[in-house]
Amino acid sequence: MLQRLISRKLHDEHVAIIDLLGRFARALERLGAGPPAADDATWRVLLPQVGTALEYEITQHFDLEETQLFARLHERGEGELAELLFEDHEVIRGVTRPLLGLVAQAQAGTLEAAGWRTLKALGLELADRLGSHAEKEQGALVPLVDEMLDEATDLELWTQYTS
């Protein structure tokens, strides 16, 4: 069981993004070559969830890891893990940025069929990359964070991160 607030928060965020990406990938796989029907409730709910979650993931979540946790990993001799996760972040940002624009267009109802095909391709790539990354962090980063932070540092990071 995780002892630290920040490791539990990371764990919860990873579980949530893995679930959302799974729902997103399943919806994308059911999508044909064009846009979904205008009255498709799944997409009306899913698009704002995906947009909000991805924006948060590549800003606040990645920022916490990169500015507060990766340096601590280096100090513990886990620099290779920190570098690997940072490289993942860069690749994920590269896929997410154009995808966020397409999601916004889809929400506004202005995305054409070709745009939906691109959204589908990028969305499936992202679901694979970010899902795999979150799983990697669950198995390696979260337990190390739980172990390496003392109570005071944990509380300080959690307070900054959640405020």
What does this structure look like?
The protein is mainly alpha-helical. It has one domain (5-162): Up-down Bundle (Four Helix Bundle (Hemerythrin (Met), subunit A)). The chain is 85% helix and 0% strand. It is built from five helices and no strands. It has helices at residues 5-30, 41-75, 79-108, 113-148, 151-162. The radius of gyration is 17 Å and the shape is elongated. The two termini are 25 Å apart. The model has no long low-confidence stretch (mean pLDDT 96).
How much is the average pLDDT? 96
C-alpha-based Rg, rounded: 17 Å
Oligomer classification: single chain
**Percent range of helical residues:** over 70%
Shape category:
elongated
**Biggest sheet overview:** none
Are there runs of 5+ residues with pLDDT below 50, and where?
Answer: none
- Which structural category fits the helices and strands? mainly alpha
- State the order of secondary-structure elements, H for helix, E for strand: HHHHH
Q: Measure the end-to-end span.
A: 25 Å
In the CATH hierarchy, the third-tier topology is known as Four Helix Bundle (Hemerythrin (Met), subunit A)
CATH architecture: Up-down Bundle
CATH superfamily: nmb1532 protein domain like
> What amount of the residues lies in strands?
under 5%
The count of helical stretches stands at 5
The number of domains? 1
Number of strands: 0
CATH class: Mainly Alpha
